[in-house]
Design brief:
With 104 residues, the protein is an alpha+beta fold. It is 52% helix and 13% strand. It has 4 helices and 3 strands, in the order ββααβαα. The chain has a 3-stranded mixed beta sheet.
Amino acid sequence: MAERVDYVTIALTEGDVPLLWLARQQLMARLEHIESTARIRASFEAVGATGRRVELSWGQKAALLAALSDWAASRDGYGAMPAQLITLRNLLIEELVSVGDPTP
């Protein structure tokens, strides 16, 4: 049985982004209400608390960025978003802009 860790990592092109368990839980709660993020949630659930990397496709990264951007634009704004998720949002912007859509 895998030992429980207190974080999960998101795999990005420029390196992994760690999220503490609390930030992961807050993100999952937000994604729960967005139908288009079902596969993202499944990816997070698949790695659970094992410390393995969450690997997302380009489209999933774009959907995650959209969800984080919507959260930031909500009435709660950045004040309610954990700093790690703001960092993740910023890194996703950089990655999706610099890499672009890999599909022709």
